[in-house]
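Quick one: co-fold with coenzyme A.
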Amino acid sequence: MLGSELLRGERLLLTALGRDDAATVATWYADAEFLRMYDAMAAFPKGEEEIVARIEEAAKSDRTFLFGLRTAADGALIGQAAIESILWTHRVGWLSIALGPGHWGQGFGTEAMRLLLPYAFGELNLYRLQLTVFDYNARALALYARFGFRREGVFRRFLLRDGERHDMLLMGLLADEWREGRVE
Ligand SMILES: CC(C)(COP(=O)(O)OP(=O)(O)OC[C@H]1O[C@@H](n2cnc3c(N)ncnc32)[C@H](O)[C@@H]1OP(=O)(O)O)[C@@H](O)C(=O)NCCC(=O)NCCS
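Sure, here it is.
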């Protein structure tokens, strides 16, 4: 049926994020492993105010779609995802996804992608999605590869963490590629 599964998967919902979610999100941003998977900035906790500001900023922008990922079973917030920095002229956007610690490796990322990609290509009508990922983030690399993202470039030795340098990869997926190789 038209749109019936746009925001709702078997176990996961794409929802808005609100002020009330900031406390939960802040617990994720207090976890160093999460921060080092998600962001190249120095791992530094984010307070609730900063998180609320991001939510409010996103709500005002027509270039940012910020989602809360909630379980269909009880509505618990377990992650966030964004399609952002959209260049409407070119129909290009950046994709990001993050589950809170404790929710990794249980297939939620896979299910979130099953919702986010149809949303990006079928609702926003984007032509290209891109993202960056660190070479040590095995789960994320497996996830993006599974959905057909191609490695398009390498920011060689971009990160320096605990005295070791790591690459950051640029990955991209085109609407045509996604339609042809659609992973269910
Ligand atoms: C990256 C992330 C979204 C992936 O979601 P997830 O729910 O953990 O991943 P899934 O359980 O759906 O599994 C994804 C893939 O990783 C594989 N995987 C699971 N645990 C793994 C591990 N410890 N090491 C390597 N691969 C692993 C799974 O087998 C699966 O691959 P497959 O589809 O080829 O079988 C999630 O782990 C996360 O939010 N991590 C912290 C923030 C982050 O890294 N965001 C992405 C930044 S680019």
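If it helps, The domain at 12-180 is CATH 3.40.630.30 (Aminopeptidase).
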